[in-house]
Write a structure and sequence with these properties.
With 433 residues, the protein is an alpha/beta fold. It has helices at 3-19, 49-52, 61-73, 85-97, 112-127, 144-149, 154-160, 184-201, 227-239, 291-294, 310-325, 328-349, 376-389, 411-430, and strands at 28-32, 35-38, 43-46, 104-109, 131-135, 167-170, 208-213, 216-217, 223-224, 243-247, 271-274, 285-290, 353-358, 363-367, 391-392, 394-396, 400-403. It contains 14 helices and 17 strands. α8 (184-201) packs parallel to α9 (227-239). Bound molecules: pyridoxal-5'-phosphate (PLP). This is Acetylornithine aminotransferase/4-aminobutyrate aminotransferase (ArgD).
Length: 433
């Protein structure tokens, strides 16, 4: 294991420990739109969207119909070796949907983790360099390289080591780490200096294949990197021949009010990973990127027998139709404004609310104690109480409420959620939770 990863694992230790809380017992029986119903018939508003994997709503009738139709026609003829009409359509669609007007390739897989693994392989093959730089607090998946590329605690390192060589971490520019009085410009420069320090101390830039980032960290707490920082990092990769890749598995497909979270920054990445919501809950992932990079590892360099199977591809095509027809990206933006307005007011009323970050239907809501310090215990009580009242929500890093409803949530449902929040935040501040 690299020394750099060792040091930063210590930093990740606390947040991983804090995140290890027990959730309420929910046994889901069915889902529809933005709600789920449990085995006893109680219905909840879903503020988790199955970990942002159900952006287009639970069991959308168009998606369900497409799955049924495809299953009657062809379930699998391994796309690793031969084309099928449905998967071929998806390849075209994904090329069109992603930023960049260069020649593109698409590689399909079964999970967000394997998409990130693929990007590591493509970047190494293309550059002929070994090193991979990711960020503290990142979530890139649970397969081996993806775990190591993610926030990993020393406990985990001890259990699953030895780790793969060539992985390094830069400190993510997490707004929680801003110094008192530090403005965004100074913060960006300080964090970029730390990023460059990594290359000066541990990993020569000309031996680095890949910089992989979630422009808005999901599991890291719904935290958006500053524009200036992203510009500097991107520029650094251009100057040093490093592949720049974004992980859109959690934040893509309209979640943060734009199609991709990287769209907020006006940067066109070399490689982009898609997963979670793409097939409305069926296993499917994709890497879309520059053909010249992906051609460096031709088939069978990265193939999965069932990756991009026609049933998942049919679900994806129908889901992308829904995304367009129901203008879910626009919806994420307009409903997100309402959420922002709610919290602008709520922050004035409820001292338990700390920093609140809302980007479309994507929110990280910090819960704090009377001294303004992160309060994981209170956050846990809040989500248990919301569960009683009829909403499913979980925490990130222990103290952050994760707000990621399906993008089809209605205004009426949002109003119900705000009423529940009002009740629970009042109880949290009264000490009656
Ligand atoms: N990347 C991000 C940003 C994620 O949030 C996740 C899962 O939470 C993954 C990758 C891994 O995806 P999967 O669980 O489909 O392997």
């Amino acid at each position: 294991m690299s020394k750099n990863l060792d040091i930063l694992a210590e930093e990740d230790q606390n947040r991983n420990e804090a995140a290890r809380i027990k959730y309420f017992d929910l046994v889901v029986q069915s889902g529809s739109g933005a709600t789920v119903t449990d085995a006893d018939g109680k219905t909840y508003i879903d503020l988790l969207a199955s970990a942002s994997a159900i952006n287009f709503g639970h069991c959308h009738p168009k998606v369900v119909q497409a799955i049924k139709d495809q299953a009657e026609q062809l379930i699998l003829y391994t796309p690793a070796y031969f084309a099928n009409t449905t998967t071929a359509k998806l390849l075209d669609r994904l090329s069109q949907l992603t930023p960049g007007d260069f020649a593109k390739k698409v590689a399909l897989g079964n999970s967000g983790s394997d998409a990130n693994e693929a990007m590591i392989k493509f970047a190494r093959a293309y550059t002929g360099r070994p090193n991979v730089v990711t960020f503290t607090g990142a979530m890139h998946g649970s397969t081996y390289a993806a775990s190591i590329a993610s926030a990993i605690s020393l406990n985990q390192v001890r259990k699953i080591g030895p780790l793969m060589p060539g992985f390094y971490k830069a400190p993510f520019p997490d707004s929680h780490d801003r110094l008192p009085g530090e403005n965004e410009h100074d913060f960006s420069l300080r964090k970029f200096a730390e990023f460059k320090q990594l290359f000066e101390s541990y990993v020569p830039a000309d031996e680095t294949a890949l910089v992989l980032i979630e422009p808005i960290q999901g599991d890291g707490g719904i935290v958006k990197a500053p524009q200036e920082y992203m510009d500097l990092v991107y520029q650094f990769t251009r100057e040093n021949g490093i592949v720049f890749a974004v992980d859109e598995v959690n934040q893509g497909l309209g979640r943060s009010s734009t199609m991709w979270s990287i769209d907020h920054f006006g940067i066109v990445p070399d490689l982009l990973a898609i997963g979670k919501s793409i097939a409305s809950g069926l296993p499917l992932s994709a890497v879309v990127g520059k053909a010249e990079i992906m051609d460096a590892l031709p088939a069978p360099g990265h193939l999965f027998t069932t990756g991009g199977n026609p049933v998942a591809a049919a679900a994806a095509l129908a889901g992308l139709d829904v995304l367009e027809e129901e203008d879910l990206v626009g919806r994420s933006k307009s409903l997100g404004k309402r959420v922002q307005e709610y919290f602008d007011q709520a922050k004035l009323r409820y001292p338990c609310l700390g920093d609140v970050r809302i980007y479309g239907l994507d929110g990280g809501i910090d819960i704090v104690d009377k001294d303004g310090q992160p309060d994981a215990q209170l956050a846990s009580q809040i989500i248990f109480r919301l569960f009683d009242l009829g909403a499913v929500m979980i925490t990130l890093r222990g103290f952050i409420l994760r707000f990621q409803p399906p993008l089809v949530i209605t205004e009426e449902q949002l109003d119900q959620v705000f009423a529940m929040f009002d009740q629970v935040f009042t109880e949290a501040d009264d000490g009656t939770l």
